[in-house]
Structure formats: structure tokens, C-alpha cells
Here is the input.
Amino acid sequence: MEELRKLEEVQRMLTFVQSRGIPTTSSPDDCSCFLTKLILLLVQPCGELDLGKKCSLVSEYMPKISAAFLDEASKWLNGEGYEERSVENALQLACSHKPESSSLDNSYEEMAMVGLDAMQRANSTLEDFCRSYFMFHGMDINKPQSVFQYLPVLSFTESYIYQLDRLNEKTLHAPSNEMNMLERGSQTEGQWLISRCTNMFKSDPFRPLSCLLECHGLLTKRIQDEFKSGEGYWALERKLCYALINKTEISVEDVIKAINQKSFDYRVLNLLLYQLRGEEVNELHMEFLSISEFLVEVADDLFDYENIWSVCPNCAGKIHS
Here is the structure.
């Protein structure tokens, strides 16, 4: 199916370029195929490069790329023992490569992977994102192609975030005496998971995902900033929960900051969608959505508080106090 999709893209682009006289209908088939694939490559997202920048790069460096240069490049590849492979596979190989001295466990830790539970938990957020954000990209939620075209990247990213969120919850549920033992390096059977969660949040929990997105030309500075915002939110969540458990004072500033940061995953998905579609970020939309996200989070919290009050007034009173 993937090969058929690529073939369809080539045919569609060939029809388009021929309608613009590039190449002419009298051109050999190989020439038409080459130019069509070149244009397809140029319109694919690549980091933060827009179409104008890509054209500038081609204009600047194309005169330096001669037949001799390409012949030398081909020999260089063959001399290194590489087989011909797609750019996507080459990038994945470079990203997942680990030194032979690394252990198998470390290799797995460096890979961005998600579990079925995380994917199931992410489903509702993905559906809400598609229904609420696609309209800002001129996309129709009722057209399956609009959804499935970008679903793999969006689903994987949101599932990865949900997986980290679940790990953060595990650290919150760990008894304080267990956490103290883990801090000192003392670890009994069954505590390895909590230890792993704690260590992950002390380092860079988004690094495997960032590496994967970078390999596909999707990682931007703004997405990295939102990842940092997510780390900040989880840190505040732990801080606020520990304050509630220990009955210590809670800072209103921390609460407001946490609410502002909580929807970071929606912003990540939205920025990813801009990258996937090769569009520039619409700052007006982003500003509007940030306000909307804040209000939605406040409304959700009030709704949850109301539910707690209806079930257990004493519990709600403790939260209020």
C-alpha cells in the first residue's frame, strides 16, 4: 500500500508539472520522472525551511553540483559499503545507531517506543485535537485522508507523552521512604520501575522522541520549548501533590503556571501539524488557542472539583482548604 501511495504521488505531481510545462510532454520519460521526484523532494517538510529558503539553497548550490561531483559522491558511498536506501531509512539508521559497547538495556532506553496502554490513553486527546484544531489548518475532520495522512506521527507523539505522564504518576504514588532509599541508591526487588521513572525525569525524558522527530525533519526550536514546558508541568505537578500530601502551603503562582503549561501536548501536536504540512506557524491562531487551552483547563478542573464535591463533600473541603 505504501508503494502504491508513493506511485500515486509521483503520478499526481507529474500531471501537475506537465500542466505547467515542466517538463514538456516531448521530454523523455526518464527526464520527466527525475524532475517530478525532485519537485516532490523539494515540497517535503525539512526542519524549519520554507519553500522560499529551499529555492534559494537550490539556486545557490546547484551550480556547484556537477556530473563529476555526483560521480565522486556515488563512489564515496560505494567505497563506504553503503547500499542504496531511501533517505528516511538512512536517517533512522543514523538515529538509532549505538556503539557496540553499549548494553542492550541502554539501547532500548535510547529508542522512542510506546506501549498499547499509552496509545489507548492518548486516543481521546487525539480525537479532541483533530476535532478542535484541524479547522485552523483548513482540514476536514470528516475526510479520512485528512486524518490518516498525519495520524502516525501525531498518534506516536501523543502516546509517548501519555507514557511519560504515566511514569510521572508512578513517582507520585511512590511512598516517601521508598523515594529516600532510591535517592541513596538502595533498591529492593520491585523498586526498579520507580527508580527508572525517577532517573528518567532527572535527565531528558523527551530526548528519544526529539531524536526521532529530528530524523524526520520535524523537530523545531518551538517544539523543543514545549517539551521543556512539559517537563516543567510535571515538576510542578509533583511539587503541588507533595505539598497536598504533606499539608504545606501551595503557591497560587505555581498553580497558574501549571495550568498554563498543562496543554503543552496540544501545542506540540499543533506545531507538528504545521511541520507535516510544510506551513508556517500562524501566530494569531497560536495566541488564540493558548487562551482557549487555559480556559478549557480551568473549566475541566472546576468540573472535576464539582464531581468530587458531589461524591465526597469532606474531600472537596480539604482540597479547598
User: Anything to note?
Assistant: The two ends are 59 Å apart (CA to CA). Residues 80-108, 176-190, 311-321 have pLDDT under 50 and may be disordered.
